[in-house]
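[Automated response] Your request has been received and processed.

Submitted sequence:
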Amino acid sequence: MAQAKINAKANEGRFCRSSSMADRSSRLLESLDQLELRVEALREAASAVEQEKEILLEMIHSIQNSQDMRQISDGEREELNLTANRLMGRTLTVEVSVETIRNPQQQESLKHATRIIDEVVNKFLDDLENAKSHLMSLYSACSSEVPPGPIDQKFQSIVIGCALEDQKKIKRRLETLLRNIENSDKAIKLLEHSKGAGSKTLQQNAESRFN
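Generated structure:
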């Protein structure tokens, strides 16, 4: 009888101890789950800051190279460029880095995709129109929507092999490059239109002198 009571107390102690350990483990797991949500929120916020930095730099650069900047006085343009350079410098002081965890295959895919884009960018000066068409096919390979033009199937398979965060960054880079080309085209057309209008005015003034 005495032995039975001893065994009962021992079992009760083991039960209490295991129950307490289970509760503690459960609380710790719940805390880690909550921290994981906060870590992911931190990464998303940092990525958003990275994107905002890229957008701000692109907008400042676009203003500096806009047609409006060409149509103001030298003094005004110099003053505005000083302000733009100051803003660009302050923007560059913001350093945010979100490292992407990749396996060896994803690392190799990213290098391959980056190399392909860099090769197209290096051809801008030689053949802008062909480079633009090539960039469009690369961008279409990253789009989930039905593309309006051809898709670079090889590039698409390479991008699929990249980490999800890298896929988003590749798409954003292509979007930025295409916007820059579009803005350059508009600036050239406006400049040509301005020159054409100026030539037409000179011609009309010359004709009016002889009439």
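Summary generated for your ticket: DSSP finds seven helices and no strands in the chain. Residues 43 and 51 are 12 Å apart (CA to CA).
If you did not submit this request, please reply to this message.
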